[in-house]
Structures are given as structure tokens and as C-alpha cells.
Amino acid sequence: MKRMSLLLFSLAISAASLFSDSRHIAFERDQAVWTANLDGTGEKKIADGVFPAISPDGTRVVFNTTEKTSDTTYARHIAVVDLATGKINVLKDVPSDNSYYPSWTADGKQILFTTRPHEVWDLSW
Fold first, then answer.
1. Torsion-angle region of residue 39: left (phi > 0), alpha (psi -120 to 50) or beta?
2. Cα 85 to chain center, whole Å?
């Protein structure tokens, strides 16, 4: 019985360490999007932007880009970066230059965000 408990404990520790090594967090610092390991090590700047959200499967990060268009106005778009390749895709087909606060659906297939196309905030996906 002790041997079986020790074996199960060893397998659980091994699985946990494998799983935790592949998980990351996304965060914002100084108008840039960063990722890091769950324990805070391995920080890496991945893009200029704000409001990052990592996908449920941990392979992509959605965030806001901000582009100054005049002295007082900005264009804000939703962008997605693939963590494996670093490729950034800015979603330009959104009917507003004022999109904010992206978030993944639980299945990671859609992105929810707010837009302000007509001076009223809308929820979009």
C-alpha cells in the first residue's frame, strides 16, 4: 500500500510539474504586453498594447493596440498574437476604431470586446 501511494504521489508531482511549465500568464507593463511563466520567471515582451488576455489553451494572447491619430484622438483595435510564432493579427474588420477590453470565450473560439461605433458602448464578438 505504501508503495502504491508513493507511486501515485510521484506521478502526480511529475504531471503537475510538466503542466505548470507549459502554462503562462499575460500582463501589461508600460503600454506593452508581456508573458511569463506562472511563477513570474521567463518574462518576455510580445507586443506594444494594453488589456491582454491569454487564450484558454495558452497559445494566443488577445490585446488592444493604440494608435494616436491626432493630438486628442486615438484608434484602438483588437489584435491577437500567436505565442509560438510571434505573428500579430490586427482585427481591422471591426466596425469601430474604438474597441476595448478583449476577452476569450471559455472554449477559446471567439473573442468578446466592447466597441463604441456611435458614441454608445456595445458588446461585440
1. alpha
2. 15
- How far, in Å, CA of 77 to CA of 112, rounded? 13
Could you tell me which CATH class the domain 24-124 is placed in?
mainly beta
SS3 71: coil
pLDDT in tens, the chain (125 residues): 444 433 333 334 333 333 445 689 999 999 999 999 989 899 999 999 999 999 999 999 999 998 888 888 888 899 999 999 999 999 988 878 888 899 999 999 999 998 876 666 566 66
Decide: residue 78, CB within 10 A, 0-12 exposed, 13-18 middle, 19+ buried.
buried
Q: Which residue, 29, 53, 60, 34, is CA-closest to 45?
A: 34
**What are the residue ranges spanned by the domains of the chain?**
24-124
H or E element in which residue 64 lies: strand 60-68
Phi and psi angles of residue 28, each rounded to the nearest 5 degrees, phi first: -110, 140
C-alpha to C-alpha distance for 25 and 34, rounded to whole angstroms: 8
